[in-house]
Amino acid sequence: MVERSKTFQIVANCIMILLCLFCILPLWLLFASSITEERALLDYGYAFFPRVIDFSAYHYVLVESTQLVRGYFLSAFTTLVGTVCNLTLTTLFAYPLMHKNLPGRKFISFFVFFTMLFNGGLVPSYIMWTQTFQIKNTIAALIVPNLLLNAFNIIMMRTYLTTNIPEEIMDAARIDGAGECTILLRIVIPMSKSILSTLALLVGLGYWNDWQNGLYYINKDYLYSTQVLLNKMLMDTQFLMSSASQGLSIDTSALPSTGIKMAIAVMGILPVLVVYPFLQKYLVKGITIGAVKG
After folding, report:
1. Which of 5, 64, 150, 203 has the fewest Cβ atoms within 10 angstroms?
2. Of the candidates 241, 259, 258, the residue with the CA atom closest to the CA atom of residue 250
């Protein structure tokens, strides 16, 4: 029995080591490729250890340092504000739905679910946001469309509250004279740290990685977020390389094409790698508990 236990432990450790390597090696390969000379990448392909170390890709990205710093600040601002607003609206929407005696509860839940399946489409949404709400070239364009409220988050939050917040606790609070706002702030939210942390991570990733809102609603370079700015740099690089291949007199000798893609990816994923370890323990718990029942 002891031998079987030791054998199982060894096999399990080997499997976990392989899984860790599968997660770490692609990231290391990404970073190694970003600091490899462009010619070495073209001649020898990707390698875990650079043949010739070269930081020209990062130099190209950081050449517009003022704009890039502004883009990082703008991304951090929109991620923070958007995440807080999203969690606030999601909680305020899901809290009433957890009460079984809420009038029209089933209809409201169906309406929320219906928006996950059908929407107006890109063109009507663009017309609505730009002509009705006038958010084009504003900070709101990076926060509101498509990201401010999500039906899936509402359903997951409602499910978590329904299955993990006992009605008896809230009834006891009401008997003691607590109102709904007091119950929400002092009972429900403190008991919902797992799901709130999970949603904060998911929503924050959505805001940080978003480039579509900037592409659709922003055409002022001082409002470019990090992802929009880096995507623009990548497209400009591809355009210059394409123009050079067509015979136009453009000097691309110092312009990295493959390496810059890797540098852009590294810069985009770095904040996520820093934040994720602090919220990872809540992610699995929140998703597991929040998706038990619908």
Report:
1. 5
2. 241
